[in-house]
Amino acid sequence: MVKQSITRYIVSFAVLLLSASAAQAEEKPLRIGWVYAMANAPALIAEKKGFYAAEGLNVDIKSFTDGPLLQQAVAAGDLDVAYVGSPPVYHWFSRGLESKILAQVNFGQAAVITNAKSPITTVSDLRGKKLAGVAKGSGMDVLLRGYVLKEKAKLDPDQDISIINMPPGNMNAALEHNEVDAAFSWEPFVSQSLLRGSSKVILDVNKDLPQYPWYVVIALPKTLKARPDDITKLLRAHLKAIAFLQSHPEESNQIIAQEFKLEATQAANGKTIKPEEIVQEARKRMGWSAKLDANDVQFIQRLMDYSLSLGFINKPLKVEQVVDTSFLQKAEQSLK
Predict the structure, then answer these.
(1) CA separation (Å) from 305 to 42, 142, 165, 263, 294?
(2) Is residue 194 helix, strand or coil?
(3) Per residue, what are the HEC states of 249-302?
(4) How many CB atoms lie within 10 A of CB 91?
(5) How far apart are CA 186 and CA 20, in angstroms?
(6) Which domains are delineated in the chain?
(7) pLDDT 10s digits, 275-309
(8) Is the pLDDT at 321 greater than 50, yes or no?
């Protein structure tokens, strides 16, 4: 009897330990990283409006100032999911860091601007000029060199123009002080400059390439395998956040303005422009969508081809290697 009692006690204790371990595993947060850019607003909206919590998700969300820092966190295994530009994803893939693009985050955002008084009116006029851009080989640099300069302006990015690498936050000042002739920038920096009256747009990329996808949601293969239900829940929250951005523009503009610490600015006529007005202006060149339809996938392939021609990847890649829309489809169906 004593032996049986001891045996039952040991079995019961083991079951309790297993149950506790399982509970801890279920409560382990889904670690989400996102590049600190206005276009990635769905990530912060999902957190601020409680959409992750409504899905029963325990999340640990962290913003990163740029893609390379986020990449380090992904490579180190410190993140499960990330909101990042599509070129870095396939650049990493080509170097052995595999991940899958699950959904789109935004479309549009980029533009080429010049000083409001500049005689430059088209990107072809930039031959022999100085253009503010970001680090060579970065996601935005792929779009600049591959599409804006080579395809649109018919310029050799290494021979016909001087690309000056600088943070986007410094580009407007450089333009206003005539340190550069133009800048390849994005939101909210474009809108801040336009509303001050100090610049003009000579190329709105979203007009030339309507609703081109940029930021995407990615996950590591091990996360997709280990936590498929959580990934579906995350994408449900992502869809809800985008729906909120579209149906509640005024409230979402305020959230974005607060999160990105936008400050009121003054127009040339002395009018004070509120932070949320900057966000509203930015919406003219960008928007949000989760879908990845055939045109979106084709554009990502186009970016891959640009990267190959520019020497940023050393072998051809097919978009099917990095895109998996099955989780998004499941999330969409479960919301109907």
Answers:
(1) 28, 10, 23, 39, 17
(2) helix
(3) HHHHHHHHHHHCCCCCEECCCCCEECHHHHHHHHCCCEEECCCCCHHHHHHHHH
(4) 23
(5) 48
(6) 26-107+214-335 (3.40.190.10), 110-208 (3.40.190.10)
(7) 999 999 999 999 999 999 999 999 999 999 999 99
(8) yes
